[in-house]
Amino acid sequence: MPVPLRQVIAALDARYDPALAESWDAVGLVCGDPDEPVGRVLFAVDPTTAVVDEVIESGADLLVTHHPLLLTPVHGVPADDPKGRLVHRLVRAGAGLFVAHTNADRAPASGVNDALAAVLGLTGTVPLEPCAADPRAGLGRVGQLPEPLTLRAFADRAAAALPETVGGVRTAGDPERVVHRVAVCGGSGGSLLAAAAAAGADVLLTSDLKHHPASDAGEVAGPALCDVAHYASEWPWLPVAAEALAADLSGRVEVAVSRRRTDPWTHRAGRGA
Q: Which residues contact residue 260 at a Cβ distance below 8 angstroms, ignoring those fewer than 6 apart?
């Protein structure tokens, strides 16, 4: 039996406490009637046109995304605006949109960073930057590999565990360096490099690393770097979140994970090796 949207929101908020979100973030319900029934929920990283197509084609009643559709303040959502068009399409289809962003990044157990650490096989993970109110929650994770690997082999493991993207997996550091303790941060986590070093990590895996910080990191003792696509680093959260919601609602809603690739890069030229 479908459940009211407000009950789905309550379950999501219990897992991904809005209080954990950054002050600048835009999380929660974007559109949808809390009293309308929800029978099917689709999870995706990004609220793109292709994903909204999938919502409509599949008959989903709710789209849950990690990235916000409307992160910066807006004064309207006209249908001739790209983002406004998506809102109109969802409303016409009777589908809601819910966002769990930096609150899902910090959430314990079923959050973005625990999911990323799990697919890489890390054990004994703890937050890199714990929340003061709850040390189980926080940004990033650091943990141990089951057995030491070279940086080259760790990069291969990451490439096998994460969705394939045009950008692939890049490393900065000696490819033969031995890696045992690993720090991760889904999305743009370059700001956690110092925390990764303080935690004794041999490598920091994250996304969107910039040239100068990466170059500087190679000049000092500290973690090697592993740079993966932003989309790829956050995708492992989707099946975890979907399964958690189904369990929290006792199987009364059908859940699915979007298979539409929302990594924006479409082609890479040259050998690059």
A: 44, 48, 50, 51, 53, 54
Q: For residue 273, what pLDDT is reported?
A: 54
Angstrom CA distances, 45 to 245, 256, 266, stand at: 16, 13, 17
The two structure tokens encoding residue 144: 């141990």
- pLDDT, block means (10 residues), the chain with 273 residues: 95 98 96 97 98 98 98 91 96 98 97 98 98 95 98 98 96 97 98 97 98 91 96 98 98 96 94 64
User: All domains of the chain, ordered by start, with CATH?
Assistant: 3-101 (3.40.1390.30), 107-234 (3.40.1390.30)
Binding residues for a divalent metal cation: 66-67, 105, 230, 234
* Binding site, annotated residues: 66-67, 105, 230, 234
- Residue 142 amino acid letter: V
